[in-house]
Predict the structure.
Amino acid sequence: MPAETAEHIERPERHEFAAEVGRLLDLVVHSLYSEREIFLRELVANAADAIDRRRFLALTDPAMALPEGGPGGAPGGAKVQIIPDKAERMLTIADDGIGMSHDELASQLGTIARSGTRAFGDELAAAKPEDRPSLIGQFGVGFYSSFMVAERVEVLSRRPDSTEAWLWVSDGQGFTLSPAARESAGTSVMLFLKPDCAEFLDPANLETIVRRWADHISVPITIRRDGKDLAANEGVALWRKPRSEISEQSYSAFYRHLGHLFDTPAATIHWHAEGTLEFAALLFIPATPPLDLFEQDRRAHVRLHVKRMFITDQADLIPPWLRFVQGVVDTEDLPLNVSREMLQSTPVLPRIRKALVNRVLTELKARAQQAEEYAKIWENFGAVLKEGIWEENEHHKELSELFRFRSSSAPGLTSFADYVARKKPDQAAIYILCGDNPEQLAHSPQLEGFRARGLEVLLLSDPIDAFWPDRLGEFGGLPIRSVTQASADLEKFPFAAGEAATEPGAEELSAGEADKLAARLKAALGEKVSAVRPTGRLVESAVALTASDKGPNLHLQRLLRRSGREVPAAPPILEINPRHPLMRALTTILRPLNDEAELLFDLARVQEGDPPVNPARFAGGVAAALALSLAQPAGGSRGDTAP
Ligand code: ADP
Ligand code: MG
């Protein structure tokens, strides 16, 4: 094969790498030593993918037909060859796959095509240098990992439907492309190894490396030793084997390969369905979230095989709200030459999909029995599962039983069932509060009145939480209500025993006084608020904002605005706490309350995590108030000067 590289006659075209490639390459090459054998995994995976793709196209296009002479001389044979050449210090990985045209070589190997890889590059750049090697080793960076071991990489490739071959050459600083020759279709990746990488020329060492992970690759892999190509894997589809014959390591290796993941799965679900539907499924729930979990393309990529042959990973075998599930489905119920149209219209896929969803939900339910283990799954994927309520109506019950929340009155995670078991006997709703982050929620003034009355509130801080509770509506017959819209419910609950500090004091405004003060504040604020009203919801805080009774709550309004949408909502309502000493003080001021009202409004915004309408004025007001309070004659508690 090296002879072929000498074939370029014309002057090679010179190309630069896309900027992001250069940056990723630098990071990879310079952060790695111990993990560098992963280049082999990446290159063999690419070669096997290329063979799968060619085999699929060959079903409908004779020009793509695979070479004869697979294992046992069978037609349709194709393999990945690993060929060390000590004399040239060169390692070749050759395949009979789909190959790459001139333009494909330039684009596939010159840019970072995979969105996950781009995200990974960003993560890598952000990681501490000492953490980078394991990050790379565990994740893999595809083709570019070649440069961890090679000072020059040559890729000679020819597509089956063309007689033209091209040679791509790179030393890591851009690449050249020149016309070349290749006897048959496929790709050879030739690595001219760095002087300290001779270990990758030793066939026994190569075999050790390949055997560690290659068992699940259903394409034969050979390693050349003393002129002979010796098999390095079984080339049998893992999911077709009985569970008893598969080791944990094989499952994990397959899982890593599928999802570009690096840990061991949180759950492995492997079964063979027989009867009306016939398929094998091997699904994994990852232990860490895939990097692209919340990217635009929210599709699942469970791979569809028909009679062992890879067809597509775009068949939507799993709904978007289970997209973290990785895996393979292999069915007998579709023809091998299944067309794109057939994939869309066949009743087989929806039935398989239904079976997969039920199986995954059953598995999650079983995991949920182990609170600690389940907490990890929930932290990783709860926000995705919640989308299931929003997206379809079919699984509301099963899903809501899987949900877990932080709570205002218990540490750890609380389920709806826990909540219902703890609620007050005459409590007729499940109370929730949505916001940006759990810390802020736990200290929100919105909670005060509920806490003081011993009413538990579930604290929801995923963006999706602004949407699904309304769609779900209830759990176990109890309506789910936001505390921001449930202040009326509080009236029938007395303060909890032991909440002495929250007993109404002598300072409390009477209902008449409170209404009058509210009217004066509303007059001062004008159209900024829909209303000002006294509330029993607050205990320590003076004021709080809430959405007007019709329309989206404040948190949802904020999310919508952040995503650049117009929010046609009425201005908020300013609620005042008649028990707060500040309110009594305000009633003693006779002039209009303009400045005080503006300050209170901004104060309420700040409590919600929003900026004051006028930050400078707010800061000025706070400083003035502070100066005033410090200038008061010192009370007994301020004798803190040094003796
Ligand atoms: P990924 O495999 O995740 O797409 P890689 O960096 O490993 O990322 O490869 C980039 C692309 O280069 C592949 O998607 C494929 O289109 C192309 N490619 C790499 N190796 C081969 C090969 N041996 N045969 C055909 N195409 C290949
Ligand atoms: Mg790859």
